Amino acid sequence: MSEKRILLIEDDGADAALILRVLDRCQPPSLAAVARTGEEAFELLSQFDDSGRRRPPPDLILLDWNLPGQGGASVLEKLRAEARTRWLPVVVVTGAASRSGHADAYRLGANSYVVKSTDANEFADTIEQVARYWLGINEPPPWVN
Amino acid sequence: MTAEILIVDDSLTVRMALMEILEAAGFSCMACQDGASARRALANGTFKLAVLDVLLPDDDGVELLKLIRENPRTAGMAVVLLSSEAEVRHRVRGLTAGADDYVGKPYDSAYLVGRVRDHLRRLKGSVQETSDAILVIDDSPTFRNALVEMLEEAGHKVLPATSGEEGLRIAADARPAAVIVDGSLPGIDGPTVIRRIRLDAALRQTPCLLLTGSDEGDAELQAFDAGADAFVRKGEESDVILARLHALLRSAGAPDSKRDTNSLQAPKRILAVDDSPTYLNELGEILRGEGYEVQLAHSGAEALLLLSVQPVDCVLLDLVMPGIDGVETCRRIKAAPGLRDTPVVMLTAVEDRKAMIEALSAGADDYLSKSGEPDGLRARVMAQIRRKQIQDETRRIREELLRKEIEAAEERAARETAEARAAMAEELELKNQELEAFSYSVAHDLRAPLRSIDGFGLALLEDYADILDDAGREFITRIRDSTAHMGRLIEDLLKLSKVTRSEFVGREVDLSFIARACLARLRQADPDRDVEVVIPDGLWVPGDSALLEVALENLLGNAWKFTRKTPHARIELASETRDRQQVIVLRDNGAGFDMAHAGKLFNVFTRLHAAHDFEGTGIGLATVLRVVRRHGGRIWAEGKVGEGAAFFFTLETKS
After folding, report:
1. What angle, rounded to 10 degrees, do the helices at B190-199 and B109-124 form?
2. CB A117 to CB B451 under 8 A?
3. Is B210 helix (H, G, I), strand (E, B) or coil?
4. What is the pTM of this model?
5. Do B530 and B642 have their domain in common?
6. Which of residues 469-488 of B touch A (CB under 8 A)?
7. CB nearest to A12's CB, from B443, B448, B457
8. In which domain, by residue range, is B463 found?
9. How many separate domains does chain B show?
10. Which among B124, B148, B171 is the end of a domain?
11. Are residues B38 and B120 in the same domain?
């Protein structure tokens, strides 16, 4: 079985580095690509491999809710609008909880909404649980890929 | 059926006459000749109105009146006192004892019937609707029939009458929309019919059209003298009569023309004052003949006494009188605030300049020689009454305008206040939204660097453990501790601002349940602690449950924290009554505090304990204070170092 693939959409370099560090130690093993903006993310999603075939979509998307510019919400909206990414698990990660953000994320089709804790241990724990669930426990529908 | 009206008079003639006129007017009557039988009748029967003679052989009409007013069964009755004009003191006594009316003997029967009808109508509480019929009173069959035909053709319902007496009867029963009456009739003539109509409170607003003979030169004077609203010469074309009638009906129907008792048509009350009974009675005769209600007084003192209980529309005052003379009486009338607008016409036997000037300088409105013709008297009295009428009307209009102006101003002010309030609410809402956004970004932006510091600190500790020595690891741990404290500060400040901004939802809240839930969380986070907790069941209080949870979380959290070093830790929540008010109290036997610092306990960032003893942000109690204040309550604390603390608060939610 091939390595799980993760797309991390996160503009904050420190957060991205910390998340990658946690994912490195998680089971199942995964390979993460980082996009700093929504545009970068969609570019990565439409790349072709060496044999000229379109790369399969990732197994999990971690989406920062407070992206500069359009924000995480519009990225999520576009992901849900495209057939190739409609069924992908998307976990929204946010710097601070807000009631409206929480509601918006689920309304637009997020699979989880998690808050990045300032406590490093808690933060690591959250990312680990998310990865374990969406990459290991959850079974994607057969028509994905 | 019991009689409606009780008549009490010792004179057989008066009794019979009263019975006759009142029964003729359609009322059922019972007559008594003395006080004893009247008292029996009052005890057994139920009357709507009583006509009482003031002087009875065995009793006093005013005493009977008091008896009627004292008994709840009869207190609502209308009472008309009947007495000769000489008894001015009785009149004053009667009116102050609660008489509805006081009619002097000799009385005008039409006037008395009008007053009785008025009072009974008032008792019934409802004013009978005016019919839309036109009453036509004319003794000539040809002219009457022609009029009836013309009016019916114009779409009116017509009530024909052949005499003044018949016309008045029909008017009282049917309350016509207008009256057309011939000036010359056998028996009661046209002007008298109109005068009688003006005396009846229910009919006085009815438009009256007087028909006059074509050759009578003073037709106009005659008509208006009687109080007619319009006149038509019998020789005029029929369409002139119709046009006049329609004009009358229009103006009567217009809302502004609604005439009250102050109108020109209302019966006017005149007080005549003279020490000579002969002249006084003569004066009374003349004025009564004009349709005025006349009161007579024999001295200035009597006049002032009467005026103090019943205002009049005009005073005729003899200049020369024993005791308080005319000039002095006039001066006193003009000095009384409620009376100074009453016109005073001074009467004197001698016509000289000096007397005239004296009278006018005392405030009299007019001056009249006793030796003059009655016509002069009539004209002057009418002129004075009209003048007062116009004055009153002008004042009324001015007051009405002023009132409308005030109302408009008030309305404008209320509208402006409402608009300002709405604008303020809108601005507040906007400010709240702004604050919400601000708090969110503060929380978000302050946390990001903390997350980074703590995250990389942890990475250092985990990934470079072999490179770092104990001191290095200790430093990183210190960095992480500070970061954690900073994180808690941010959390607590956000909670504090939320407590002020959140919507207040008041209802009955189970404080016991909330307290237990908070304690369960504390135990879960600190499972090794052994704390005795006492929370009574069913501690219901009025308030907002989310806010109260924040308050209890802080208070219980403090109690939990400050009993950490107490061997047998105990936390107790209770409800007490102080000054008839429910007080919630939370006691612990922990570290306590010095009462000298009790005052600043609830300030933000106030900490009474060293961080190494008990950690904290100093925001918790400030948050609790805000929660209690939002409930309209008070909070205070008692404590002693080393012996524990007690926090008391009240909740006074109105809604």
Report:
1. 40
2. yes
3. strand
4. 0.44
5. yes
6. 480, 483-484, 486-487
7. B448
8. 415-495
9. 5
10. B124
11. yes
